């Protein structure tokens, strides 16, 4: 059985929760675990679960983002499945986070741009996750610029450090690039009041991290339902 766990995303001013980043979790022998292989879950499984979860979200928390690795991102089945959810649940604000993970296959710039265009044309916002880490470097940022709405900067990817001030030049580079490209900018990995105090001087758009809110179980309309892997309903 799979379910979403959601980590709240906070607006900076005022500091309040406005939605969730959704993480897929699998129940094995009564324990919720991170799946070993996300690729075995089909677009229909994921979007069917989203349709069962969305009606339970409280008002004001209906902005959700879902991570896709690049292999999933360029797979047109994901675009079509999420577009169907967007059509059926127009109140739900769905963003797709393109992760920084590498692919085992060769993916062309043309494939990546076309996929980003499909999502953006369907009003499914594209977020570049963990900019400055993995494959989400400046070349990809420039390539996808017309179709991306937000950058996320993960401070946890730069640990260990004594203080958040130690990585501030890197953070400010991406913050300034987001402003230049007119993108939203989110800092994730906020894990202490000290982090929040330092970041209070950065006029970012959103914040996320354990100090603000840990991932929580999100119930579905019927927690007895096991998502059907064979067809979209």
Structure in words:
An 8-stranded mixed barrel has the order 1-2-4-5-6-7-8-9. It starts with a strand and ends in a 16-residue tail after the last strand. It has one domain: TIM Barrel (Alpha-Beta Barrel). Helices cover 30% and strands 25% of the residues. Mean pLDDT is 91; it is low at 224-233. The protein has 233 residues and is of the alpha/beta class. The radius of gyration is 17 Å and the shape is globular. InterPro entries: EAL_dom (IPR001633), EAL_sf (IPR035919).
CATH topology: TIM Barrel
Radius of gyration: 17 Å
The pLDDT mean sits at 91
Strand content: 25-35%
Largest sheet: 8 strands, mixed, barrel
Any idea how many domains?
1
Q: What is the percent of helical residues? A: 25-40%
Return the string of H and E elements: EEEHEHHEHEHEHEHEE
| Gross morphology | globular
Short description:
The protein has one domain (2-217): TIM Barrel, CATH 3.20.20.
List the helices and strands and how they pair.
Blueprint: E1 2-11, E2 16-28, E3 31-33, H1 43-53, E4 63-68, H2 70-73, H3 76-88, E5 93-98, H4 109-121, E6 125-128, H5 138-144, E7 148-154, H6 168-181, E8 184-188, H7 193-199, E9 206-208, E10 216-217
Parallel strand pairs: 2-4, 4-5, 5-6, 6-7, 7-8, 8-9
Antiparallel strand pairs: 1-2, 1-9, 1-10, 2-3
Helix pairs in contact: 1-3
């Amino acid at each position: 059985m799979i379910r979403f766990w959601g980590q709240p995303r906070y607006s900076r001013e005022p500091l309040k929760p406005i939605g969730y980043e959704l993480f897929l979790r699998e129940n094995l022998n009564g324990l919720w675990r991170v799946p070993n292989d996300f690729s075995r879950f089909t677009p229909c499984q994921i979007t069917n679960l989203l349709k069962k979860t969305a009606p339970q979200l409280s008002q004001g928390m209906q902005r959700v983002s879902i991570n896709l690795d690049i292999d999933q991102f360029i797979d047109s089945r994901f675009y079509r499945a999420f577009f169907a959810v967007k059509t059926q649940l127009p109140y739900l604000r769905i963003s797709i986070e393109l992760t920084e993970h590498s692919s085992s296959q060769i993916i062309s710039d043309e494939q990546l741009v076309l996929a980003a265009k499909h999502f953006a044309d369907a009003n499914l916002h594209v977020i570049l996750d963990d900019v400055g880490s993995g494959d989400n470097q400046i070349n990809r940022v420039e390539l996808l610029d017309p179709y991306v709405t937000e950058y996320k900067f993960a401070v946890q990817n730069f640990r260990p450090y004594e203080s958040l001030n130690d990585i501030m030049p890197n953070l400010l580079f991406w913050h300034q690039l987001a402003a230049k490209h007119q993108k939203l900018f989110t800092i994730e990995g906020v894990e202490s009041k000290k982090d929040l105090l330092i970041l209070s001087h950065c006029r970012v758009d959103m914040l996320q991290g354990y100090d603000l809110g840990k991932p929580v179980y999100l119930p579905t309309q019927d927690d007895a339902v096991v998502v059907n892997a064979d067809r979209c309903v």
